[in-house]
Amino acid sequence: MKQNLAAHEALELHEVLSLKTLYMQKEIAYLDMAQDPDLKDLIKTGLIEGRQMITELQQAIG
Question: What pTM does this model have?
Answer without folding.
Answer: 0.75
